[in-house]
Design goal:
With about 725 residues, the chain is an alpha+beta fold. Among the domains are: about 230 residues, Beta-galactosidase, Chain A, domain 5 (Distorted Sandwich), CATH 2.70.98.40; about 170 residues, Glycosyltransferase. The protein has 18 helices and 33 strands. The strands form 9 sheets. Strands 7, 8, 9, 10, 12, 13, 14, 15 and 18 form a 9-stranded antiparallel beta sheet that branches. A 5-stranded antiparallel beta sheet has the order 3-6-11-17-16, with no helix packed on it. A hairpin with a 2-residue loop joins strand 20 and strand 21. The longest helix is centred in the middle third of the chain and has 25 residues. The radius of gyration is 27 Å and the shape is globular. The N and C termini lie far apart (about 55 Å).
Length: about 725
């Protein structure tokens, strides 16, 4: 494949190998994740993304299993419905190479099961002889660890690396180690059970005779954390394997127990929703203040500010604990001081946090990096929405100093020239050129394709500031600060007028993408304008025209709304941000449609993304896909290096469904409201269960009734009620 060259400051990884071609299997727990091929191996080849990773370092780059000297034949592999376990079914090559009546003679079956939990990858290989005669079995593992930084795997080159140490080999253990230039020694500990017949610095092997109908089991644990590995015979290894697996699944069940559940009349859509909740559950990482969604695998399995804030916003209706965890973590990591090397300014909210060698050395600025212009107002927006959803005044009272610090950043550092709009311009040459969610180097430009020069004021940024001031005003009133609330409301009203005058373009039928450093508008039709509906800054009289523009075939591909409309100077349906389709972007825009009463259009967006998921493996929506138009008989075109799963893509179907139903919560009245709900054409019925509010819970169902939608309360526990406005 031809390599696509991208600037070093882009977040889009260079296309060195297509994840879509590989269709890798992904496992994650905490700060560790694995990217395996379909047979459960890691190929160890140059340019390959496969590996077992921990805290932005690849701790295992090769793990290949051979049977009697040959690669086993893959029969099939699958992730469990809850994403905890990868199971691969394999057989020996003779079983398919010999004549049909010879299969039973050499029919060996391998079942390979693996999962990641608490800093270790646990693997169980069960091999059974389905043949009629005993056979000699040789099972060999080859392994290696390059300890590459994640940014090296993504394509960065380094002038120097640290020291790989000679492997330490014991009876059943091999320890691989590397001391980086940051003077940190990272170790991978491989533990086998039973004791291998051969073991060395790069391989371990088992040899045994397997009678007909008999099974042997081998275990491998690859530890990348600091915890001790088991020292046990096979029976105890089997017990340890299943004990760790049960612990992993128990943690997921606890998270799911607190969240709302959705069931519909469409089996495939149910599969989409189940995969979405499983993906979100896998990406949630426990922090002291609560669950925090890591952005995506493989490139973004770490704490991002913007991604987590949007994910928590979209998940707020069914699991508000995620918002609590996100707000707590981002308040704790909020910038306190000015640091141009990291684009940090007092009050600013984190963009990205990395723990690998390159970040620790400053080779990339992302150790604790603040180069996003929108995370700060989104933080305040989420705080206001969390209060509306939960009524949790105590948490907001604790966070109020952080909210005021964020508002202070908006007023001073954010508004660089004092014109009332918030702009960005990077302060370090290593930082991101563009600092909105479309952070590719070529994503902000004028109608003729000329790149905009900063400081740049993005359309969605002003919308988020408007919503942040509105949300902060509600918080201030709840905390007994009415004077502060009045000031914030006045600021929001003034911004709305100034925004409309500067950003609305009647000829485009849309808000412009941005204002450049000379206050010249970037007259480009983009999905960014839809965020003005999402945040509520758009004047009501603009809404119908903007919705029409976004749903025009130039923007709406049939699968979803493109980031950039067909016909714009830099339109490219295969680009990262200039013509592709992003599920989270569509979900936010559809929420804006719903806010302004265009729920039928929100339902069309949901239908397009559902049709996308129907065509994709595991029914999983990726980070993005190409913006080619929808054609009968063809599925969507994948983007080659899109993360899957990706947190804000995972929650998009759930967010879209809530937008179609016009779902709102009123914690003061203990009421769940549904405003003029609609159902997309593929759904006849929807049930929402375990909707929690103020310690009570509610089950409610919807179904088609003549030309509209009817609602019924299916159950309740505590003081809670449901209303529908038709």
């Amino acid at each position: 494949m031809q390599q696509l060259k991208m600037p070093q400051t882009d977040t889009a990884p260079a296309v060195r190998t297509s994840l879509q071609e590989r269709r890798p299997r992904t496992l994650k727990h905490g700060d560790s994740f694995g990217l395996f091929d379909r047979a459960g191996d890691l190929d160890g080849l140059p340019g390959s993304p496969e590996g077992l990773y921990h805290l932005d370092t690849r701790y295992l780059s090769r793990l290949s299993l051979t049977l009697n000297g040959s690669m086993p034949v893959l029969l099939g592999s699958a992730l469990s419905a809850d994403n905890t376990t990868l199971t691969c079914d394999l057989t020996n090559a003779d079983a398919v190479e010999g004549p049909a009546d010879d299969v039973s003679r050499s029919g060996l079956h391998l079942r390979r099961s693996k999962f990641i939990f608490s800093g270790a990858c646990h693997e169980r290989i069960a091999i059974r002889n389905f043949g009629e005669r005993p056979c000699r079995v040789r099972l060999d593992f080859a392994f290696a660890a390059d300890f590459a930084d994640l940014f090296e795997v993504r394509g960065r080159t380094r002038p120097a690396r640290g020291t790989l140490h000679p492997p330490q080999v014991e009876v059943r253990d091999v320890t691989l180690a590397y001391t980086g230039l940051d003077m940190v020694t990272r170790r991978t500990a491989l533990h086998f059970a039973p004791v291998p017949d051969t073991i060395g610095p790069a391989s371990a092997g088992f040899a045994f005779e397997l009678p007909p109908g008999e099974q042997r089991v081998v275990f491998l644990v690859a530890g990348v954390g600091d915890g001790p590995l088991p020292e046990a015979p096979v029976q105890e290894a089997d017990r340890a394997f299943h004990t760790a697996l049960r612990a992993s699944r128990r943690a997921l069940r606890r998270a799911r127990a607190r969240a709302a559940k959705v069931e519909t009349s469409h089996e495939i859509f149910n599969e989409v929703l189940h995969r979405a909740t499983a993906d979100l559950g896998m990406l949630l990482t426990d922090k002291p203040g609560g669950p925090y969604p890591y952005a995506g695998i493989p490139w973004f399995s770490t704490a991002f500010g913007r991604d987590a804030l949007i994910t928590a916003w979209q998940a707020l209706w069914f699991d508000p604990e995620i918002a609590h965890g996100v707000l707590d973590f981002l308040a704790e990591t909020q910038a306190r001081h000015e640091d141009p090397a990291n684009d940090a300014e007092p009050g600013k909210i984190l963009h990205e946090m990395r723990a690998g060698e390159m970040a620790r050395l400053g080779e990339v600025p992302y150790g604790r990096y603040y180069g996003s212009v929108d995370s700060t107002p989104l933080f305040v927006m989420l705080a206001g929405a969390y209060l509306d959803r939960t009524g949790d005044v105590a948490t907001l009272d604790r966070l109020w100093p952080n909210i005021e610090a964020a508002l202070g950043w908006i007023d001073f550092s954010g508004d660089r020239d004092g014109d009332g709009f918030v702009e960005y311009q990077r302060r370090t040459p290593q930082g991101l050129v563009n600092q909105g969610w479309k952070d590719s180097g070529d994503s902000v430009f004028h109608a003729d394709g000329t790149l905009a020069e900063g400081p740049i004021a993005l359309v969605e940024m002003q919308a988020y500031v408007y919503a942040a001031w509105q949300g902060a005003a509600c918080i201030a009133r709840a905390l007994g600060r009415p004077e502060r609330a009045v000031v914030l409301e006045q600021r929001a009203a003034g911004l709305r007028e100034a925004f409309d005058a500067a950003f609305w373009d009647e000829a485009l039928g849309s808000y412009v993408l941005a204002l450049d450093g000379r206050k010249q508008p970037c007259r480009v039709r983009s999905s960014n304008a839809g965020h003005a509906l999402f945040a509520g800054i758009a004047k009501p009289e603009r809404a119908a025209r903007l919705v029409h523009t976004l749903m025009d075939p130039a923007s709406f591909s049939g699968w979803g709304i493109r980031t950039l409309a067909v016909g714009e100077a830099r339109y490219n349906p295969m680009s990262y941000h200039n013509g592709s389709v992003w599920p989270h972007d569509n979900a936010m825009i559809a929420e804006g449609f719903s806010r302004y009463g265009f729920r039928a259009e929100a339902a069309r967006v949901l239908e397009g993304l559902f049709a996308t998921a129907e065509h994709l493996e595991l029914r999983r929506l990726p980070e993005l896909f190409c913006g080619f138009p929808r054609r009968n008989g063809n599925g969507p075109t994948p983007y080659p290096v899109a993360c899957a799963p990706q947190a804000w893509a995972a929650v998009a179907p759930l967010s879209l469904l809530a937008a179609c139903l016009g779902l709102r919560f009123d914690s003061a009245l203990g009421c769940v409201e549904f405003q003029r709900p609609v159902l997309p054409g593929f759904l006849e019925r929807v049930s929402l269960r375990n909707l929690r509010l103020n310690g009570a819970s509610l089950d409610v169902g919807f179904g088609r009734v003549q030309a509209g939608v009817g609602m019924a309360v299916l159950g309740r526990d505590g003081d809670i009620r449901a209303t529908m406005i038709s």
